[in-house]
Design brief:
heterodimer, A: alpha/beta, Rossmann fold, 2 domains, 7-stranded parallel sheet, 17 helices, 13 strands, 45% helix, B: mainly beta, Immunoglobulin-like, 11-stranded mixed sheet, 6-stranded antiparallel sheet, 22 strands, 0% helix, elongated
Chain lengths: 423, 287
Amino acid sequence: MKISFLLHNGYGIGGTIKTTFNLAQALAERHEVEIVSVHRHREEPNFLLGTKVRLRHLVDLRTEKDHPAHQRPARVFPASEYRYGQYSELTDERIAECLAGLDSDVVVGTRPGLNVHLARQGPHHAVLVGQEHLTLDNHPPALRGELRRVYPRLDALTTVTHADAEAYRRKMRLPGVRIAALPNSVPEPALPPADGSGRIVVAAGRLVRSKRHDLLIRAFAGVAAERPDWRLRIYGKGEEQDRLRRLIDDLGLYNNVFLMGAASPIEAEWVKGSIAAVTSSFEPFGMTIVEAMRCGLPVVSTNCPYGPAEIIDDGVDGRLVPVGDRDALTAALLDLIRDDELRLRMSRAALAGGRRYDPVPVVEQAEALFAGLAEAKRTRRGRSGAAAGRRLAAAVVSSGHAVKDAALALGVTTLRSMRKGKR
Amino acid sequence: MSTGTIPKDKLPRADCTMDADGRLTVELGGLREAREPVLCLVLRPKKGEEETTARTVPLEPAETAPDAPGAPGRWRAELPAEPPLEEGRWDVFVLNGPDAARQRVVPGLRDLRALAPGERTPAADPLAVRLPYATKDGYFAIRAWLRPAHAEAGDLKVAARGLTVRGRLLGARPGLGGTAVFRLRGSGGTTVKAPLHDEGDGTFSFTAEYAELPPGQDPAKPAVWDVFVKPSVKSRRVRVARLLDDVADRKPVFVYPATTVEGATYRPYYTVDNDLALEVAAPPSAG
């Protein structure tokens, strides 16, 4: 099969980019795979892609940032999407042109706005797969409304958790669209796992509010008070850097808590620790949890929607604590710090538990899904009239969820278009 | 060097491992058409100056053989500890054969876990530290420090009236009349002294009293006091630095709060060479 991924920016850093690279590389062992990056802002991608996957871009921000069409708002990319501000008439044109020219068997979108492009403009001969790396419930109502309108034209929608797949089945009517959970995959690290002796707690992720590194730092104050020989290292960069810096200073934790900056490959950093911490208030999947487990670290995580509880077996290979509960976080960390035996046992369990996210089983799922849909598409071709009828029927069904979202969205869209107009 | 134009994913990639005894092994992947490849370390010259110092290390085929004949192979070398590398940044290149053109190397996995606790005690006669790292522009390089003796800083305690530093001495012993010495950078020799406390087992502590370390005159040009210890009356000054863990570029990571004393702002920091210094900014002039 020839498989094309459509990605926001393959040159950035983030879970979606990393997992798309991982999946693309694994698929490239047996298929022709390319990643189309809508944006490009630097020479080299941050993550390693290898030589088997082709990476190309549609808009080069280094030379086209001031392109007149890039100053005009996007019309296809939905205004209710988080990254709307980064899309434009130029991206609309380039994406449409790219999709029209694809001879791929399977085209995969990797975020809601790109899935909308795919649904509306995807080549008819190809299997169109929308990937949801966030979650339906967290989308603004206007975006849910938009997705509800166009997603019926997709062949499949994949989510990263079963919980989110269930939300799509329950709250969206997508007849004829295969909905499947396809977790992120993490390859086996090329270096030996942590041996559990390090006195370092490791966290990794962009320094943004939703990751709640502030909560982690506050929780670590309790750890450092009892065990001043333990350190917390936070890898990543982002807009919260200065605020976190001040918090560390205010709490007098500058000998215990370190903002390490971005590190890639991160595996070499995980293995320096013996516990990983994830304190997000929202984690659609939780790539770092799996990464840490694959390096032999038990993960102490908030039980936020949806990823952590599907990955971590509480008390066996990690700990789940209530969202936003500093004291519970401190207690869970100290439980593992005080008890070497427990930590080592959980470390071994984490290593075993992480294996189910190996690219081999995950890519087999993806491959089976894609191949099955491609086969169905071939046999169904010529009967498209029936499919169109079915989709029309789906569109006129208005569920309670749709009506609610539409009502909620009305206010939001007006606000957003006003903002855009002012720029 | 025109290697900057080769895309990084086409360049050989170096994985490396440092063990607890300081043995540094480098394994290179993605090396094409190599016959007798050598690793070449070049001491980065000052801007505008010529390269003068280089070391070469022959590479051997790694145990993991390439999948197919002619496939890019893996090669390894242990970087000998002797003679020690001169202090500075060493850029790493690889040559496919003795007279081949050199190409740069990109960083792969750097397994430096043995260094992370920061507790090792290498021999210090002199102290030679090597630390593989990724340069800002994304190449593999090695930082080296070479010092006759070394004072490894540990925790710093920032208080209202001064900065207390705990550390341990390598290659020197605390004795009678030990002092901490603060030297005003660019002053031609202005120093301030403070008593050095022997904390046993080669460890020490001292406190920099802020009141005794005046700021510069110009608020826009803070005074910088470089920090040393003189372990005993007779011994030589030893630079206080933090060199023994896995952090190659300490300045942006080990950050300490500023303290204001009578309008002047005191802030301890690590220099780009991971040496300890104290920056003192004068109060903004009135009006």
